[in-house]
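Entry 12.
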Amino acid sequence: MAFFIHTYFCRMRIKDHWQYTDDEYEEIFESYHLKPGMFSHEAHLRLAYIHIEKYGLEQAELNMCKQIKGFAESLGVYDKFNKTVTIASVKAMNHFMQKAKSDNFKDFIQEFPRLLTNFKDLLGKHYGFNVFADKRAKKEYVAPDLLPF
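Predicted 3D structure (tokens):
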């Protein structure tokens, strides 16, 4: 099945992650067949949304760390994955999902557009240091030092 999906999607001219259903997007990302240019910040948030909805917070954190790290490594990029940013992103998404009136990602992201436009600032309210560049934060989860999620 995975081979068929990979072959099918590789033949298609996909512009972005919105061309996939949630299930297709989850599967193509997990199998490392998503085109790298398609994994935008919005696509990252959508993946977190899908995982939280399907698996709950704790499993979503595990899934996202494994899959994003694996995706980066499948591209030969070994220094980009940041465990703290990945887990913090899932926690932030979960926080807003608990407040949401929407029941799908498209409506959710319109309800909370700052997740797209001010995400670094949002994390900056939780961390008093540059969590994106910190070597320890890349390798292990570092809890917020300013404001818990």
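Annotation: The chain has nine helices and no strands. The radius of gyration is 15 Å.
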